[in-house]
Design goal:
The structure is a homodimer. By secondary structure, chain A is mostly helical. Chain A is built from 22 helices and 5 strands. Helices cover 66% and strands 5% of the residues of chain A. Chains A, B: It is found in: Cell membrane; Membrane.
């Protein structure tokens, strides 16, 4: 889609980090000052699309629309294609209907579906109806697959070849589709029922002697089902280091292709989601500076509230032990330290197992293995910290308090690591997002259970 | 490198998730039982390399070596190339010297360097000396770049073309390097000083009329410096949706190429690192089930200890207020709730900003913007939670305690979000890993400062 040709090297636009920074900064400053539109227009039109996207990602939605309207026609399309779907959705509201219809028709079918998901139903319907019939069919095909499935993110614009074709015939087929296919570097091979029987790279086609049948140079295909989870399919494409992965239906008939750049985009947003949830927030779905403060608040307030409500359990547990606290107020001093350590141990385990699940290194049937491993890890950590804590607190607060703290560390860490390690797997079993489910449950459970352990040990050791 | 051809479709090996699961499970069970080696050999030799890697990722290092030795020769190389460098390193210790030398010579130069980093210096030196001279030079070139730079991860095996070549000449050049180049789908265009002047895709070369000079169909190049940070370069490659990104030296001379599959691998391990550190642990660098329990303990104990030592600050703060606690023991009940909420608010902000930094959405010069945003976000969250907390605790524990808790929420959240948002940027400024630096600092500082705020407000409101 990049139609721009280069008039020779220009020193101004070497991709040297400093220069790029300086230029994007200049645009931002020009937007801050009273706008000199003609000058700003000249400046932004001279920039590569990637740089413009970087600037747009940092602006508020009002300013983003202003700057976007200054772009040249081809540049505008190229920039639009590189923007996050959420930002595309924002822009659609701010542009003329005609411009939107033209942009929409120029998008690839898979990108179009992503944008549709961001738009109000009414706008989406109007845009779909405005498409040429063939494009509308391609788009409708993708829209038929469930949310979060790879069918939604694949491209239906592939070049397929047949096993009985010669390499020369296959190359001619490829040459005929240089303009419209999503990729021409990896070709699915199908039989006359459209069943996937192999995969062949352009490199292998070019390398093969002219008369060789495709069947002799093709590879055994890796494939995913259109209804498979998009993240798992993308991870598969990445793990196998493929430039493109064929997508098939239940009868193994080819329906589309997942290219590595789309796989990358899927993985990047999945990783952003996981990180946000490990940190106890909802994913932002747009660049940080482009998100209004109210969006940031909304992405965090629910989790914060859930966690705070869960934490009231600790208030209740402490109330039960209020008499004990009044007797030995020293016990209160260690509450944040112990609670914190329990939470940290649980989070370490949960994060490790959540990541292992995402990477496919661990599957739900490994529950027993994970439980046993995490118990051993937690116990080891508890013993290491407990001995140290016993020595230090014993010296300062006496042997009894030292013993209480030391023993609490041992049991707390073993409990927290086991719970933290097992939660993400249980979440997966009940089909919840491991990162969502684990965090509040672990915080609430480990904190409350930790206090019970602490005061239980304290009462036993101190005899109160 | 995949030489395997396919003898036709085999129903046994459709990539249907269930079948794949069943087969890998069968291999695992065969390893668990008394081994019937010939049968196991037949089974694993019939599997695609990707499936074998999945099984190997789940075995202990001893069993991994046993299974690996059963593989066929070509299969073994293919599998070895797909393994994590750490697991490759483990295997090297368990295999015959001759086998290792052969594997090592067959690796791509960039993969070779990754493996070298995993090996003891003595073994690394011996392997390097065993290489053919040309391969040794290529490898030594990559080894000359700093750790974590993209120069270490790029491939020096590119096909470059000249702007004055015709498209037909360029295609002939490409055809001559089908066997040895890392990619033939994206070609850097260089002048006679080897200075990068453009980039051209195989698709555009094939599309151009026969006599067209390359200079007319090439694009303005995006490029990275060999000394640039590997993660940033990989993110750039992904953001621009490029199949390959040229790598240049300080004089803009071409030295290598970064392909998208290598970029993906870099990003995946960077994201794993970030997630581990957000969860308060060191990255594992090997699949979860393949890591011995002692490795898991080691990856967590240092952070747990650092965080626990930091948390002793809370013990000291509480000691200062021990007299206040003895007067109003009710205050102790809310300590875990308040500490927890402060920590959660700080973590939310830190995680969001850390991710924004990794994605390039925020740069260090945005410090002021981030500070102001996070203060507003924190204040809003604090007011929302504070009002609620005032209402609930006021009802149960009386107006005064309600006021203390409500006001503490407001100031605590504002403080925690600001600190949490700013820390990752400060970490980047002092060139520390934002994820590493933020976590312990925020926990320690926010917990201790939160307690000071809490008791300060309590003393003022309750007049003690």
């Amino acid at each position: 889609m990049r139609a721009m040709t280069m008039p020779g090297t220009s020193d101004r636009f070497t991709s040297d980090g400093t220069d790029r920074d300086a230029v994007t900064r200049a645009v931002e400053e020009a937007m801050d000052d009273d706008l000199d539109l003609p000058e700003l227009t000249t400046l932004v039109r001279s920039l590569p699309a990637g740089w413009v996207v970087e600037v747009l990602d940092r602006l508020s939605s009002k300013r983003r629309a202003v700057l976007y309207r200054l772009l040249g026609k081809d540049q505008a399309l190229e920039v639009f294609e590189m923007l996050d779907p959420t930002l595309q959705g924002d822009l659609v509201g701010a542009l003329q209907d005609d411009d939107v219809a033209a942009l929409f028709a120029d998008l690839d079918p898979d990108d179009r579906v992503e944008l549709l998901d961001e738009l109000p139903a009414k706008v989406a319907r109007r845009l779909l109806q405005g498409l040429p019939p063939q494009e509308r069919d391609l788009t409708a095909g993708i829209l038929g697959y469930p949310q979060r499935s790879i069918g939604r993110r694949m491209s239906p614009e592939y070049v397929a070849v047949r096993p009985e074709m010669t390499s020369a015939e296959a190359l001619r087929r490829v040459s005929a589709h240089l303009d419209d296919a999503e990729t021409v570097y990896t070709m699915p091979v199908v039989d006359d029922q459209r069943v996937l029987v192999g995969i062949v790279s352009l490199r292998d086609l070019m390398r093969a002697p002219v008369g060789t049948p495709v069947g002799e140079v093709m590879q055994r295909p890796d494939e995913v089902r259109a209804t498979d989870d998009a993240e798992e399919a993308a991870r598969r494409c990445a793990d196998l280091k493929l430039l493109a992965l064929p997508v098939v239906d239940n009868e193994h008939r080819l329906v589309g292709i997942l290219t590595v750049d789309d796989a990358l985009a899927i993985l990047e947003s999945a990783d952003s989601e996981d990180q946000a949830r490990i940190g106890g927030a909802e994913p932002l779905r747009r660049p940080y500076l482009a998100a209004p403060v109210s969006t940031l608040v909304r992405s965090r307030v629910v989790w914060l509230l859930v966690l705070a409500v869960g934490a009231t359990l600790t208030v209740q547990v402490l109330e039960v032990f209020e008499a004990t606290l009044e007797q030995v107020v020293t016990l209160a001093l260690f509450v944040p330290l112990l609670i914190g350590t329990g939470g940290n141990t649980g989070n370490q385990a949960a994060t490790t197992v959540t990541r292992a699940l995402a990477l496919g290194d661990v599957v739900p049937r490994d529950l027993g293995k994970v439980l046993f491993r995490e118990f051993r890890v937690g116990l080891s950590l508890g013993v290491l910290l407990g001995v140290l804590a016993f020595a230090v607190t014993g010296l300062i607060y006496g042997r009894d308090i030292g013993l209480v703290i030391g023993l609490t560390f041992v049991s707390l860490c073993a409990m927290a690591a086991t719970v933290g390690g097992v939660m993400p797997l249980l979440a997966r079993v009940v089909r919840a997002d491991p990162a969502v489910f684990s965090n509040p449950f672990i915080s609430t459970f480990v904190d409350a259970a930790g206090l019970l352990i602490y005061f239980g040990i304290a009462k036993a050791v101190l005899g109160i």
